[in-house]
Structure prediction request, 591 residues.
Amino acid sequence: MENKLKKISVVSSDKILKSKKFNDFYFNSINPTNECKYVYINANNVIQKIKQTSNLVIGELGFGIGLNFLMTIKSLENKLINNKQLHYISFEGYPLEHKQLKEIYSNFKELNIISDRLIKRLPLKMSGIHDIYFPEYNTYLTLVYDEFRSLKKFSFMADIWYLDGFAPKKNSSAWTKEVLENVYKNTKFEGTFSTFTSATKVKKDLMKVGFDVTKKKGFSHKREMLLGIKRRSLKNINFSLYDVNIEPVAIVGGGITGASLAFALKKRNIECFIVDKGQELGSGASGNLVAFQIPKLTLDDSIYGIFSLRSYLFSRNLAINLRSAPISNGVIIFPNRDREKKKFEELLKLKWPHELFYNHKSFDFKEFKNLHLFPNSGIVDTKKFLMNLTKSVKLINNFNVEKIIHLKNKKVLYDSIGNSITAKTLIWANGYEVKNKFLKEICIPTSGQVTYIKYNKNFLNEKLNYSYGNYFSQEFNGLHQIGSTFSKDLNHYREYYNKLNIENIALFLKEKFQNKFEVVSSRFSIRSSTSNRLPYFGSLEKENEYFIGGMGAWGFTYAPFLSELLVSHILQEPKIIEKKLLEKLILDYRI
Prediction:
């Protein structure tokens, strides 16, 4: 994997902003907000369209300074109520620096509140897909930091397209036949587009790919602009709609996966509840004191590397926004094998953002050359995260699902003593304990034990976490969490595993503790893993029955993102994810 993004400069005169790279203006007007309304929002009847759908999808080529996004939110602010949602998908190959955007937004006082929220949530400036949720506006912003031609990797249907405004002679990459064909393919029947551009060649090319195109009077001094509509449907696409009324949803499993599903459903205003055999949330593998959130980077564009990074960016941001991530100075990684040392040497050459990771030189560790700091990674307060994900969600505890009766439009869940619960939709999220034969065949139970030792004063204010094959957490609630063991042995040999965790502590940490470790307690649990290290989700043979699992030891990094994908799958929302990755994650028992 490689960060392919490059810096781009902007020059400005009052509110007229120009890209040095493309030698063209972001807006050709001294009144860009009104121009944006005219060219994009009004030309596509955005306000009218939100009244006709529960989930309006807008695609954009060229996020630029983000003004189209901000103005769309501003225009729809009072329309995005509980049953209305906006999904804004924008492709940008040359994102601006956060500092540049902040300076630009200071010129737009009427957008202060919205732009402040955007600045605070903007992702790391690195290639890939970045999801941002704005609960204040029932809006998802998906930023694809990549070239426009990357559109071919995705499959979604937009109601509206905002096409890049840079002149074709200045930015030809926005107007290639391949890009326009993929814009058409990813447009709903009777979906529309608009653009500043009025070039005759662009008009003809848009018509060739299938759009009905017309010219309209441009804004202010500009003579013309283009807008169009998709009138012809593609033969190979099934446009039929089916019932997506899934309420109420029973989620079986009260760990991080079940809690993440509840969060994804509730923010869409969908009624759901959690069923768990334990007394409280996190009674299984999700109940450790803390969990690490850190990506597993790879040297190539492997499925595993893409998924790990995408999940990390999504889940870490969610934990921070839900105030469930204790203040941390990051995670230091000490590669413990020659192969790992070589890998990090090569990773450094790929120019990842400093905010993601960098080679760390510290006086405390001057004897180490291979020392790497992930400054934004860290721990999660698991109990707080589970609680914040499931606010206002009912937990039915001490209920071990033993039998299910599938009736028309509902399912009845029974425990061993005959108690029952009724739901319309069922999602299995209970890890290795899932009872379905198909899922049991792909599930690999793996045990793990963490050990809690009393904090050491040398670490109390350091707030650093360490990974050295195993891990060692910063002080939290007076304890350091260390571990974890991995074994196919599902028995509880607690004392043996505690000794193993302490034996595996890196030498420099042992020296700081002077080899005096006071074990306070430990925790043993069993996780569900897979042979290819990737989790999964999909549909079972019964209608409205789904599953999700295989997180292994990475539940707090993988589960929030994968749960979002599953809910989008169930509701037929656009899933902005590489096709090759989605094919590996989604399983269908019915096939």
Remarks:
- The radius of gyration is 26 Å.
- Residues 234-243 have pLDDT under 50 and may be disordered.
- Residues 249-284+385-442+532-588 form a domain with the FAD/NAD(P)-binding domain fold (CATH 3.50.50.60).
